[in-house]
Structures are given as C-alpha cells and as structure tokens.
Amino acid sequence: MNEITLSMDEPKKKLMQLNESLPNASNELVYDFGRFLTGYLNPELAPQGFVMACELALYDLQTGTNGFTGKPIQSRLVGYPSMTYSLLRMQIPIIADAIFPAEFAAGVKAIIEEVNSTTQ
Fold first, then answer.
1. Reduced to 3 states, what is the DSSP secondary structure of residue 94?
2. How far is CA 55 from CA 24, 37, 49, in A?
3. How many CA atoms lie within 13 Å of 20's alpha carbon, on the beta-carbon side?
4. Domain ranges in the chain?
5. Among candidate residues 95, 10, 94, 91, the one with its CA nearest the CA of residue 44
6. What CA–CA distance (Å, rounded) separates 3 from 119?
7. Does 3 have pLDDT greater than 80?
8. What dihedral do alpha carbons 61, 32, 90, 24 form, nearest 10°?
9. What is the pLDDT of residue 116?
C-alpha cells in the first residue's frame, strides 16, 4: 500500500491551536494533548506514522517518562487513570479531521480501524 506522506508543519500549528480547529472538544485535555503531541511528530509523516506518534505520546504520558530522553514529563496530562488516556486515544480520529486534509485523515482512521479490528 502506497501511503501518502505529509509535511507536519501546518498540522503542528493547528495542534498548537487545536481549540480553533476543534472548538467543541469533549474536554480541555484534548487541547493539551494536541500541544504535547507536536513534540512527537517527525517533519513528514504518513497516516501510520501519525497514529504511532499518538500512541507513543499517550504511552509516555501514562508512564510519566519521555521514552526518547528517559526524563520525567512535566505536564498536567501525567498522572491520570488509564481510562483518561483511552478517552484521549478515541479523540485521535477527531483530531485528524481537524488538522489534516481529508485524504490523510481518512488514512489515519483506516489505520485505527484496522488496529482495533485485530485487537478485538
């Protein structure tokens, strides 16, 4: 499967101001997660890479340690019950719709659906 890749410059800007692209988020933590996620995005990504970056960011928030540096994460997103991170995970397709072109967002959703169908 030949996946499209996309520069993350514009999506990063939108993540930093996610409240403008996604004004009706279910929770303020979604906006915080968007800002936090920018540090996990490579300059260019395919949909699968974006999903992987989200998963790594969520894992690191759950453990409270940056997996790249080994240093503690200073964020209000650290220390929540695992259900909070599961709820943030469910927001990934919604975030993708808010920050990416339709074709890329559809690719993100397809990856998530594929992963979910194989883990159930």
1. helix
2. 23, 10, 10
3. 8
4. 6-54+84-119
5. 10
6. 22
7. no
8. 170
9. 82
State the pLDDT at residue 27: 87
Tokens 């719709």 -> residue: 97
Q: Is the pLDDT of residue 1 over 50?
A: no
Q: Which residues of 65-93 are buried (b: 16+ CB within 10 A; e: fewer)?
A: ebeeeeeebeeebeeeeeebbeebeebbb
Q: Which two tokens stand for residue 73?
A: 């994460």
Instruction: Report the C-alpha gap between 80 and 62 in whole angstroms.
Output: 7
Sign of the C-alpha dihedral, residues 103, 107, 112, 114? positive
Cβ partners under 8 Å of residue 13, min gap 6: none
Percentage of the chain exceeding pLDDT 90 = 85
Nearest partner of 93 among 25, 29, 35, 4, judged by Cα:
25
**The pTM of the whole model exceeds 0.85:** yes
Torsion angle of C-alpha atoms 104, 109, 57, 88, degrees rounded to 10? 130
Does 58 have pLDDT greater than 70? yes
